[in-house]
Amino acid sequence: MDAAPKTVTGGQSEPFDLSRINVDSLSDDLRFLVRMAKAHRYLDWIFSLMRPYLGDRILEVGPGIGLLTSRMVADRHVSALEVDPDAANVLLQRFGAMSNFDVVSGDVERKEWIDENTTKRYDTVVCVNVLEHVVEDITALENMHKSLRSGGYLFLFVPALMAIFGTLDSAVGHKRRYSLDEVSTKVQSAGFEIQEISYGNVLGVPAWFWSSRITRRSMPNTSILSLFDRLVPVWTWIESKIRVPIGMTVICIARKR
Fold this sequence. Notes:
35% of the residues lie in helices and 21% in strands.
């Protein structure tokens, strides 16, 4: 029988800066996240999309090094479901002294971490760039559904377009990139009712294709990443006015019936 998932909490403090983390000992996917930490406008954009659906109690699935955790934990309780012990260690270094944060060591594909006490269910599940790493993604979605209270929200953000799958995806452990239809089908089959679903980040498509399929990099180019981040206000404004037919990302808001 598997051991019960371990939950770690702390006192009250401010999270400290990522520059204090020793990145040399981290895996490629976590080092990728450290590089992405410099894309402040991009991360703020993601947070702006999820903010309307964030309740008081949040489960963040696979938060990695806490790039979005830092934006949510200021005035909400965040439970971080993290299977990677190195990532969990970074999260505890950054947020472990905060009373409204805890780490739950568990695998989203398994059920041991789900509390059977319905009064302890979450208001919102946040899953950003995680589902593509999971083998049994429908099982993972079903477990997220079980962890939510009735009427709770899922904010799902996954990479799109298998046509641009390449070396960057392989380096960080992606199993797939999604289409709009695939996300819609799988989310609904897990019991959710979709509220909104769309492609986003159309500008990222050529940048990812160039880095992952043409130059075949295993880490994002810092110059391209910096340029991309500076252009976030431009392409997000355009996407707020028109519905783009493709994008680097599928964004899905779903609700538990």
